[in-house]
Design brief:
Two copies of one chain form a homodimer. Chain A is globular and about 45 Å long. Chain A has a single domain, classed as Class I glutamine amidotransferase (GATase) domain (Rossmann fold, 3-Layer(aba) Sandwich). Chain A has helices spanning 22-28, 48-60, 75-80, 92-101, 105-113, 123-126, 174-184, and strands at residues 3-7, 34-38, 65-68, 84-87, 118-121, 155-157, 189-191, 197-201, 204-208, 213-216, 223-225. Chain A is of the alpha/beta class. In chain A, the strands form two sheets. A seven-stranded mixed sheet of chain A has the order 3-2-4-5-1-8-9. In chain A, strands 6-7-10-11 form a four-stranded mixed sheet, with no helix packed on it. The two termini of chain A are 19 Å apart. The A-B interface holds A 9, 11-14, 42-45, 90-91, 93-94, 132-142, 145-146, 159, 161, 168-172, 176-185, 194 and B 9, 11-14, 42-45, 90-91, 93-94, 132-142, 145-146, 159, 161, 168-172, 176-185, 194. Chains A, B: Keywords: Dipeptidase, Hydrolase, Protease, Serine protease. Chains A, B: One of its GO terms (molecular function) is dipeptidase activity. Chains A, B: Belongs to the peptidase S51 family.
Chain lengths: 235, 235
């Protein structure tokens, strides 16, 4: 039975890394003593080791050990044997490129579908959707595909940002970008604001946190989704 | 001899489409009676016809005819025979995908290198750099490559945006994104603010407009470049 947290962001403004999620994670990873961390998204180009150390420090406060997937000779086995998995944020293109390069897309999909508890934040959440076509990140590397893990049957837009009505900047708003996506792709896109997450338990998918989320469906007006709404039929 | 305008944006806040560039374009396209327009970037998912109509309307005010490349049976011949070429903004992934799909990367490169006057705005400017890895656009389609036309030996970041110091949003700033690019790629990136453009004449590349541009080089601190600076040695 799937057991997944798909969080918009790791960090809230004025908060520390993973702070707002920690009480939740204590329960989510209740039966887990060592978290397998996937540091591939490398925020700011940080090394796998440094990124893993940062995560290790936080998880130690809830008495979890952390091991980076890059510390294993065989990443596929690391995933198959993992008690719990966390994929951190950073650049989604870099992350997806490494997932393909290390040939672990399928094993990650299988492990999580079979019930290994998973946490994704930001880029690590983007990959829970059908494709990474709705990432906000800059395409700094060219991955072999945009197909991702499909733990939910729609796309995620993390760090969803409402249009700034006072802006004089002429670049596209997030909403415009997602509408453009729908000129070329059919699947719904859920814009998750910072502080929101999806809780996937078996077939149930629920919006959590205090905020509404913005749902974009092809040929429909966007709508606001309330916390605790069941999204299992969204596809 | 190359004769190119690489503009950050087609439209300034409170301005109309191409308005601020028109006096310049009258001279740039002085010997051109019909502009070949490449509408592939489809801003907002607009059709090729509608986009071309919008451009036609503006160019008619300086007595130029406009023909969309999609109106030709053979796009390669359209480029080879063009008197002047304009590639408009929209989504860079959609644009580059169509350039490859229609197999016109090489003919576009050849025509412009041989002297056909070219104008790019936004996505149409992104493709003048070595690669499209520094676009701001959402990756709504998967192009066969990120390699672009390389009319300049660096990358362009159009609509360059300074960090908003009052923002509480945790998504990356533009500067952070470009620094991440340099963790994986060597070439310089020029952040062109809205209202700036590059004027390429033969081997000369000069920043034009009233604003400075922000230059990012791997392992260097970013620097501000003044208007009229010669950038031909930047690579």
């Amino acid at each position: 039975m799937k057991n997944i947290i798909i969080a918009s962001t790791s960090t809230l403004h004025n908060g520390s890394y993973l702070e707002y999620l920690l009480p939740l994670l204590e329960n989510h990873f209740k039966k887990v003593s060592t978290i397998l961390f996937i540091p591939y998204a490398r925020p700011g180009g940080i090394s796998h080791d440094s990124y893993t150390d940062k995560v290790r420090q936080v998880f130690s406060t809830i008495n979890k050990k952390t091991k980076g997937i890059h510390e294993f000779d065989n990443p596929t086995e690391a995933i198959e044997n993992a008690e719990g998995i966390f994929t951190g944020g950073g650049n989604t293109f870099v992350l997806v490129n490494e997932l393909y390069r290390n040939n672990i897309i399928d094993s990650l999909e299988n492990a999580v579908n079979k019930g290994t508890p998973y946490l994704g934040t930001s880029a690590g959440s983007n990959i829970c959707g059908l494709t990474m076509n709705t990432t906000n990140d800059m395409p700094i590397v060219y991955p072999p595909s945009f197909r991702t893990l499909g733990f939910v049957s729609f796309n995620i837009n993390p760090h969803y940002l409402d249009p700034d009505l006072n802006s004089t900047h002429m670049g596209e708003t997030r909403e415009t970008r997602i509408n453009e996506f729908h000129s070329f792709n059919p699947q719904p896109v859920l814009g998750l604001r910072e502080g929101s997450w999806l809780e996937v338990k078996g077939n149930s998918i629920k919006l959590k946190g205090d905020l509404t989320a913005r749902l974009f469906r092809k040929n429909h007006s966007p709508e606001e989704i309330n916390p605790d709404t069941e999204l299992k039929d969204l596809k």
